Structure formats: structure tokens, C-alpha cells
Amino acid sequence: TGTGRFPVVLLCAAIPAVLVWRRPDLVAEGIGLSLVGFLFLSPAFGTQYLVWGMAAGYLISFRLATFYNLFAGLVLFKVYTRWSHGFPWDRANYWGLDHLELAGALVLWACLGVTTIIGIRHLAGTRPDGVARSGKFGLPGKFALPGKLTQPGKLAQPDEFAQPE
């Protein structure tokens, strides 16, 4: 509850909105980016937040979201087992995070950061090597669609990527 919450929310809404405005076919990724980015930049922590990041992450990267999902499950398993003093988990008292749980939470936070960067790069239309994507799904050739960004500042022409039949 500080004055920094409004710039974080604005940033996490504005960046995806601008990128989706440029590439409206990627609106789902933009929604995922807004939530993943917010969870990455937010100073708050709650065990329920670990689930929210996984759901939004699948809109950006299946591999990272699956890693996040499995690792968050392990972290939550350890946390709730300790808070409940073993099984059954019928009652859990908050005892903070121990060193191992904190390290796991930091790995998950870093995963959110990587997912945020990948989401921005994907929406901006660049591959990890910095080259602009060409055509639908970033593929060259007959998959390129007219009006899609092929090189920085250059739009593809309808027959620019036509392949001889």
C-alpha cells in the first residue's frame, strides 16, 4: 500500500496494451503478460499468488509455465507441510518461509521475470537473437502475411515471401 503501486499497475497494463495494439492477433499473450509482469514487479507475496502466475504463464510460454507449475507445487508442498506440522493438512499456521522455501520462491520469481521478458519480446515481434519475426508464427516463406513486420521498420509485401510452386 504505497505510492509505487500505481506506477506498477500502469506499467503492467500499458506495455501489453501498446504491444497488442500493434499486434492484435496476440491479445491472449498480452493478457498473460499483464498478469505475469504484475506478479513479477509486485512486492507482495501470498501462497495464492503462486497459482495465478502459472495460469497466466501458459499464455506466453508452455515450457516455462510447466516448470513454474511443478516447482511452485514443490514449494507449496514444503511450506504447507511445515506450517501444518506434517500431515494431515487440516490446519496451517503461518510461520514465514525458511531458507529453502525462500530460495524456491526466488527461483519462481526469476521464472516470472524470464516469462515477462519472453512475453515482451514475443509481442514486440523479435526472436531471442534480436531479429524481427517474419510472417505468421515467425516463419518465413508462404506463412508470411502481408502487413506483418519482417525487418525493423519494414512491412512484408504480399508476394515478398512467395515460394515458387
Structure characterization notes:
With 165 residues, the protein is mostly helical. It has helices spanning 5-22, 27-41, 49-57, 62-83, 99-124, and strands at 149-151, 154-155. A two-stranded antiparallel sheet has the order 1-2.
Shape: elongated
Low-confidence stretches: 133-153, 155-163
Side by side, the strands of the main sheet go 1-2
Class from secondary-structure proportions: mainly alpha
Rg (CA only): 20 Å
For the secondary structure, the number of strands is 2
User: What are the secondary-structure elements, in order, as H or E?
Assistant: HHHHHEE
Strand content: under 5%
* Assembly category: single chain
- Main pleated-sheet profile: 2 strands, antiparallel
State the distance separating the first and last CA atoms.
62 Å
Count of helical stretches: 5
Averaged pLDDT:
77
Portion in helices? 40-55%
Characteristic terms for this protein:
two-stranded antiparallel sheet; single chain; mainly alpha; 165 residues; elongated
Short description:
This protein has 5 helices and 2 strands; from the N terminus they run αααααββ. A hairpin with a 2-residue loop joins strand 1 (149-151) and strand 2. The chain has helices at 5-22, 27-41, 49-57, 62-83, 99-124; strands at 149-151, 154-155.
Helices and strands in order:
Blueprint: H1 5-22, H2 27-41, H3 49-57, H4 62-83, H5 99-124, E1 149-151, E2 154-155
Antiparallel strand pairs: 1-2
